[in-house]
Design a protein that fits this description.
The protein is mainly alpha-helical and 131 residues long. The chain has helices spanning 2-15, 17-44, 78-94, 99-116, and strands at residues 48-50, 56-57, 72-74. The protein is elongated, with a radius of gyration of 18 Å. The structure holds zinc ion. Zinc ion (ZN) is lined by residues 50, 52-53, 55, 66, 68, 70.
C-alpha cells in the first residue's frame, strides 16, 4: 500500500511538478489521515492475543503470558501507526501542501506521541516478544 502511494507520487513528480502537490495533498487527506486515525483508534481499544493458541485478552495479565504459557502480543503496534505518519510527515515537508494540512499532520504526530509516549525504544510495545 505504501509502495503504491510512493510510486504514484514519484510518477506524478516526473510528469508535472506543480500537479504533484495536489496529488500529494489528495493522498494525505483520502488515505493517510484516515489510516492514521483509524489505527490510533484501534490501538486505543485493542487487546492482546496469544501467539500459540490465539486466545485473546482485553488487558495484559500480570504474568504477561497466556494461560497456555505462551507470550501475548498486542494486536496493533506503534509501528503500524507510525509507518503512515512518517510518510505523511515526509510529504508535507517536501511538497507544497496547505498549512492546514501541515498542521493536521503535526497535530496527529503530537497525539501519537501522547498515546505511545515519546520514547521509541519503549518495551511496552511487546514487539520483541513475538517469536
Ligand atoms: Zn495461549
Amino acid at each position: 500500500m505504501l509502495d503504491k502511494l510512493d510510486m504514484q507520487i514519484r510518477n506524478a513528480d516526473m510528469i508535472d511538478a506543480v500537479n504533484t502537490s495536489e496529488i500529494v495533498s489528495n493522498v494525505i487527506s483520502t488515505h493517510l489521515v484516515p489510516d492514521i486515525m483509524g489505527n490510533l483508534r484501534a490501538y486505543a481499544r485493542q487487546g492482546f492475543r496469544c501467539t500459540a493458541c490465539g486466545k485473546s485478552y482485553r488487558r495484559l495479565p500480570l504474568t504477561k503470558n497466556c494461560t497456555c504459557g505462551h507470550k501475548l502480543i498486542q494486536t496493533i503496534t506503534r509501528g503500524s501507526v507510525e509507518k503512515y505518519l512518517k510518510l505523511a510527515k515526509r510529504l508535507v515537508d517536501n511538497y507544497d501542501v496547505s498549512s492546514y494540512q501541515k498542521g493536521r499532520i503535526h497535530a496527529l504526530s503530537d497525539e501519537i506521541d501522547l498515546v505511545f509516549g515519546k520514547n521509541k525504544g519503549d518495551q511496552s510495545l511487546l514487539t520483541d516478544y513475538t517469536s
